[in-house]
Every structure is written in structure tokens, then in C-alpha cells.
Amino acid sequence: MNILVIGSGGREHSIAECFAKSKQIKRVIVAPGNAGIALQYECANLQTQEEIYNFCVQNLIDLVFVGPEKPIADGLADYLNEKGVAVIAPVKFAAQLESSKIFAKNLMQEKGVPTAAFKIAKTIPQALEQIDYFGFPAVIKNDGLAGGKGVFVVKNPAEAQEALKKIHFSEKGVVVEEFLQGWEVSLFAITDGWEFKTTIFAQDHKQLYAGDKGPNTGGMGAYAPVYEAEKYRKQIEEEIINPVLMAMRELGHLYKGILYCGLMITKEGPKVMEFNCRLGDPEAQVVLPLLETDFVEICQAILQGEINLVELKFKNKTALGVVLASEGYPFAYNKGFPLSLPADLSGIYFSGVEKGENGLVTSGGRVLCAVGMGKDLNEAREEAYSKVQQITFKNRIFRQDIGLHKNTFYDNGDS
């Protein structure tokens, strides 16, 4: 089979690697990819839906797998479906679970899916009123896509005013939520629209600095599996994933592909923080290397409505990834700094890099993710941070505490 992976980051790098392991694969192409991915896989500079379709025809592409949120929200799956090209991604209507926080929150409220209490604000004064209603800390969210950077946790009136200056008010408004106490975990549901199978749990580290301090980012590191979350799996499947997929069917739009559930484990049980309509980044970089089931078989089962026949198998190991970013991320940052890399690039997934005069140079906020694997969390951490020490570039930043969360509840409700 010839596979086309859409996207240009570390997630797409790990997806390409996962496909390449299959004996059914002839070619794996990543579009547009990046100069780091191009060290291992073919890349094609495709930007528009039409360019993607024409490339599929000319290169006899058997399957398109869409990585990032924007092409999904823009309806790439609808376009390729109409043209008869097999694609793994939900259609534009179903992708509103990610592209519109307000759509997702209203659907969850209607179906009784556990999530944070919320209100919709159309103006800054209205948002401030609602923040008063919930009290501090409170959460303010963009309605639309924001690259993982559209969520603000505000602890006082000054922070609320500052966040509301930065946030984008769509026609529908913004979401103001109660702040949930607990610990975070991510779970992927792989679905044909009717049945679904869930992966191992992963834990992302969203804040920029150690100890979960600083602004939200697209993710500074992750690990999998998260054993403490296992006891909640059945409840998450029955109270969250099943009702949401059923709701999409009732609305006349099967949700096919990957549904990412971003969850807070609270004292009352799991609650939804957000849905993504794809694999997460950097969670994909720690979940996919542990996957033993053939990724092509999983994709074919999604397309053929036979996901219930697939058995998801994972290695009995732990994977942990540390993101190396450019100083200044998630805001303004300098780029163009040369990377010094180890000879062995296994477990290194490139995001923000491009070709320089003498090798790769930085070109993005998140530059790469270094993943270690081991028999347990400590061993995986050791290997990941050993790789980090072998990678240098000017102005690099990273968190030293990936995988050190205590997934427990304290008397004062903090986590």
C-alpha cells in the first residue's frame, strides 16, 4: 500500500513510523512534512485539497491519514470522500467537537456527558460577570482552533483582564468554565462511527515550566501508559465516548477516525476538558511506538466498519517523550539555530526544523520530541533525558519533570 500522511510535525513523524512498520506498506509519504522527517521518509510539499487529491491520483495512494486539526476542520475528509479517496479523519461537521468548543460543550450538556460547568460569553463585560459567578481560579477558552494555546486559567481579576485581551471572541462567543481540580489524562478512541476501541492512557504536560507553571502550550512532553487511570476506563467508555458517538449518529454524521478525550480525573470521577478529532501531539509520539497491532489493519477496520474485530495490543513497556522548544515559545521566538544531533535518530520526532547550510536548523516553537522507552517509567525517563542531553541548539528549553506528576488527590483539593 501507498500511504499519504498529512501534516508537518512530530505527531506525523510518529504516524509515518507506525505505518512503515507494517508489512503491507510500499511507500509512506508525509505532506508537507519537514526537513527532519525527510531524513527518513519521503515528503511532498502539498498545501491545498486539490493538490493533495491530484497527488493521490498520480501516486496511486491507497490511504490518506490526516494528522493536524486544521485540514480536518477545513473539511479535507469530506473533499476526499467525495472524490473516492480512502481517508482517516472525521468529516467537517463531526470535527466541530474540536473546532467549536461551544458545539462540544452544548452537546455534552444535552447528553449528560460529565464536563466542567460552563457559560457562554459574547463580550468582555459578560465574560467578567461569568468569571465572578464561578470564582477564581476560572478557565476561559477560545471557541475555535488555537493550536493548543487558546485556554487561559485565570487566578485573579488582573489575569482575567489580560486573558480577555488576548482571546478571540468568535461569532458564538467564548467559553467560561469552572476550574476542575484533579489530574489530567488523555485517551484515544479509534472508531468506525458505531463501535470503538480505546488505546492505553497517556499524560500530556501542557504548561511551559516544571511544576505545571506558566502558559499553556501545545504540549511539552508526555508518557504512556498511565496505570492509575485504568480503573476509570469503563466509566469513560460508557459515560463519555459512547454517548458522544451516539449523538453524532443521531445528528446524521458518523464520527469515523480518532477521537481524543482530554480528561480531568476529579474526586467525582472523570470529566471532559476537551475533545480533539485526531491523535494528540505529543501523546502520539509515546502511544504509537508502543502499539503492536498493525496500523494498516486498524485503518482498514475503521473504513470497513469492522473496528470491533480488531484487538489493540501494546508492548508491556513505558514510553516517555520530552519536547525541546525554542525560548520564547508559545509566544515570539527566534529561529534559524543549527541543531547538533546524535548519530542514532531513533525515538527523535521532528516538528519545527528546516534545512540549513550544514544540516537542520530550528524553524518552530516546538522543535522536536525525544522519546525514551523502558520497562517502567523511571527507565523510560532516563533514556529520554539521556537523548535530550545529546541534542543541542541555541535557546533550547525543555521541562525537567516530565513523568513526575503525582496522580493522586490531596486534602486541599490540589493536584
UniProtKB/TrEMBL annotation:
SMART domains, alphabetized: GARS_A, GARS_C
EC number: 6.3.4.13
Gene Ontology molecular-function annotations: ATP binding; metal ion binding; phosphoribosylamine-glycine ligase activity
Domain ATP-grasp: 105-304
Catalytic activity: 5-phospho-beta-D-ribosylamine + glycine + ATP = N(1)-(5-phospho-beta-D-ribosyl)glycinamide + ADP + phosphate + H(+)
Known cofactor(s): Mn(2+); Mg(2+)
Highest taxon of the lineage: Bacteria
Pathway named in the protein's UniProt entry: Purine metabolism; IMP biosynthesis via de novo pathway; N(1)-(5-phospho-D-ribosyl)glycinamide from 5-phospho-alpha-D-ribose 1-diphosphate: step 2/2
Signal peptide region: none
One Gene Ontology term from the biological process aspect of the record: 'de novo' IMP biosynthetic process
InterPro entries (alphabetical): ATP-grasp (IPR011761), ATP_grasp_subdomain_1 (IPR013815), PreATP-grasp_dom_sf (IPR016185), PRibGlycinamid_synth_ATP-grasp (IPR020561), PRibGlycinamide_synth (IPR000115), PRibGlycinamide_synth_C-dom (IPR020560), PRibGlycinamide_synth_C_sf (IPR037123), PRibGlycinamide_synth_CS (IPR020559)
Keywords: ATP-binding, Ligase, Nucleotide-binding, Purine biosynthesis
Sequence similarity: Belongs to the GARS family.
Protein name: Phosphoribosylamine--glycine ligase
